[in-house]
Write a structure and sequence with these properties.
The chain is built from nine helices and no strands. With 194 residues, the chain is mainly alpha-helical.
């Protein structure tokens, strides 16, 4: 940390940067354990309800990634959008949003699919939709929100219907909806308190 101070580098977004670094450590651990740590710690899947790790994984699956490409794609978007959101809404709220997305997408995956779910894509989509609302200062529904919703969520709905791949479009859609709902509720709270 002294080197960071000497170079005048600021840990400007503690939740986002910590999330990125912890996810990197999870990826390294995954490689070192021949993918066992992802299964036991960083992915959510059907399992025994008496296993305490089952409940931990409902939150930690957003930290796990299948490979470097998966990690890089998610983290680049989080690093682009996340710091602005953390500055606007505060570190505590961003951490809460990440936890809500993790829990809800994890529960939906366990209840409705037989898939193993890991990665921060739900968080990415929540942040993208939340960011599209963030600049709106005069109330109403921003056109950017409508366009982003149509492009991002429309593409995910299309892919969920027509493509068979290992991507959880359902997680993307749910993450986006969570970002949309939180963004609109924060916007309404701001306008009703002004």
């Amino acid at each position: 940390m002294n080197l960071l101070k000497k170079l005048n580098i600021k840990y400007n977004s503690p939740v986002i940067l910590s999330f990125v670094f912890i996810s990197a450590l999870a990826l390294i651990l995954n490689y070192l354990t021949s993918y066992a740590s992802n299964f036991y710690l960083f992915s959510v899947h059907k399992g025994s309800l008496i296993d305490p790790l089952f409940y931990i994984r409902l939150f930690t699956h957003v930290l796990g990634h299948a490979n470097l490409s998966h990690y890089t794609n998610n983290m680049l978007l989080i690093l682009l959008v996340g710091p602005m959101l953390e500055e606007k809404y505060g570190s505590k709220n961003i951490l809460i949003i990440i936890m809500i997305v993790g829990f809800i997408t994890g529960m939906v995956n366990v209840i409705f699919t037989n898939n193993i779910l890991l990665g921060a894509s739900g968080v990415v989509f929540a942040f993208i939709l939340l960011a599209s609302i963030t600049g709106n200062t005069n109330g109403g529904i921003p056109l950017t929100l409508i366009i982003v919703t149509v492009i991002y969520l429309g593409e995910q709905i299309y892919q969920a219907i027509y493509l068979q791949d290992n991507v959880s479009q359902l997680t993307h859609i749910i993450g986006g909806i969570i970002g949309l709902v939180i963004g609109l509720s924060l916007q309404n709270k701001k306008h009703t308190s002004a």
